[in-house]
């Protein structure tokens, strides 16, 4: 399994001090988080893509290219690449370029995004969101696998004899995860292509996650890519830790209560009971995360959201230290127990290249 960090890059006031970081501070903090992730032995850093305040990561490949130059092992990914409002030709070019710069340490997660106004900013109609996701990815998939592409669709100008450059590193396209919270069409899309399915389950109860993952697994097998158990699944998670669970709850509560995404709604206790959010000791994080396998099966990637809601960078780096030193080593060991031999490992460029030559 791969373990890592994903960020949405929000610029949120710290409710305990009232101070809001500058955009520069937040961008630099995201880089520091990625470097800390590699330092403590995590596998993946993934950034979101947003084009509206209060978020800063509008250019994921720029950030990931900078991080690639300062890391050696970390897989660089996105927690959303907007397949609906980005031109698939530009996605193909940008991520192939990043592949070369990062020596293959690149994959990406396709998503529609959750900010309605973005669509008209980029000349699109949110009512066509699913259709845009399906058509744009069909083109992107071809651009990475065919040297010369002829294309005609509904949402962009036709292509005639077009070659996307640079070509993917070693002739192997970046691995794609399709991220979805609630759209069965996206689970079907991931299954049709034999790609990965990432369920960002941080706001959802286990039963909903189970249904989405089971749908993807069954359709993956239907399309002939392997057994349901061989499908490639990733999950999100959310944690805040202190040695003493009461200290964790006391420290995190003002951030939870004022967070833009769920503040002023359910109580912290209600939310932790109903969703994957864990606020407590490292052992509690271990126990709850291991429970994900009960409803998602053996899966390949676990990413944690840790830097949101105005938490100061110092606190986030302390969290990542605990995650890397105390939590993930136990999770690696425990998730490996009883894992069937035919369950695939997390996709990497090296593995995909070897499979292409088999």
What's the gyration radius in Å? 20 Å
The computed structural class is alpha/beta
Low-confidence stretches: none
Any idea what the CATH architecture is? Alpha-Beta Barrel
- The amount of helix comes to 40-55%
Q: The CATH topology is what?
A: TIM Barrel
Given the structure, what is the number of helices? 13
Integer tally of domains: 1
Structural account:
The protein is an alpha/beta fold. The protein has helices spanning about 25-40, 60-70, 90-100, 120, 130-145, 185-195, 205-220, 245-260, 270-275, 280-290, 290-295, 315-335, 350-355, and strands spanning about 1-5, 45, 75-80, 80, 105-110, 150, 160, 175-180, 195-200, 235-240, 280, 300-305. Strands 1, 2, 3, 4, 5, 8, 9, 10, 11 and 12 form a 10-stranded parallel β-sheet that branches. The radius of gyration is 20 Å and the shape is globular. The protein starts with a strand and ends with a helix. This is 5,10-methylene tetrahydromethanopterin reductase. Keywords: Monooxygenase, Oxidoreductase.
């Amino acid at each position: 399994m791969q373990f890592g960090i994903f960020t949405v890059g929000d610029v949120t006031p710290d409710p305990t001090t009232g101070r809001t970081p500058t955009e520069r501070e937040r961008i630099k903090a995201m880089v520091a988080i990625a470097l800390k992730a590699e330092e403590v032995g995590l596998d993946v850093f993934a950034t979101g893509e947003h084009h509206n305040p209060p978020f800063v990561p509008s250019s994921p490949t720029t950030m990931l290219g900078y991080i690639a130059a300062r890391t050696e092992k970390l897989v660089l990914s996105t927690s959303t690449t907007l397949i609906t409002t980005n031109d698939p030709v530009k996605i193909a070019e940008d991520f192939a370029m990043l592949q070369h710069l990062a020596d293959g340490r690149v994959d990406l997660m396709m998503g529609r995004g959750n900010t309605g106004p973005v669509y008209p900013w980029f000349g699109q109609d949110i009512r066509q969101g699913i259709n845009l996701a399906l058509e744009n990815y069909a083109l992107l998939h071809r651009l990475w696998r065919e040297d010369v592409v002829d294309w005609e669709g509904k949402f962009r100008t036709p292509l005639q004899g077009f070659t996307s450059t640079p070509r993917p590193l070693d002739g192997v396209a970046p691995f794609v995860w399709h991220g979805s919270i609630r759209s069965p069409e996206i689970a079907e899309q991931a299954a049709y292509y034999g790609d990965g399915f990432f369920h960002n389950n941080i706001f959802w109860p286990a039963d909903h996650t189970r249904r989405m993952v089971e749908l993807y697994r069954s359709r993956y097998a239907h399309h002939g890519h392997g057994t349901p158990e061989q499908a490639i699944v990733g999950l999100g998670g959310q944690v805040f830790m202190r040695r003493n669970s009461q200290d964790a709850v006391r420290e995190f509560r003002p951030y939870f209560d004022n967070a833009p995404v769920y503040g002023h709604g359910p109580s912290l206790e209600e939310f932790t009971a109903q969703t994957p959010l864990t606020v407590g000791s490292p052992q509690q994080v271990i126990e709850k995360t291991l429970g994900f396998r009960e409803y998602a099966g053996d899966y390949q990637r676990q990413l944690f959201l840790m830097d949101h809601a105005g938490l100061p960078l110092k606190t986030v780096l302390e969290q990542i230290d605990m995650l890397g030193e105390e939590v993930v080593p136990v999770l690696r060991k425990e998730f490996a127990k009883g894992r069937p031999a035919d369950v695939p490992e997390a996709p990497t460029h090296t593995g995909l290249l070897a499979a292409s030559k088999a």
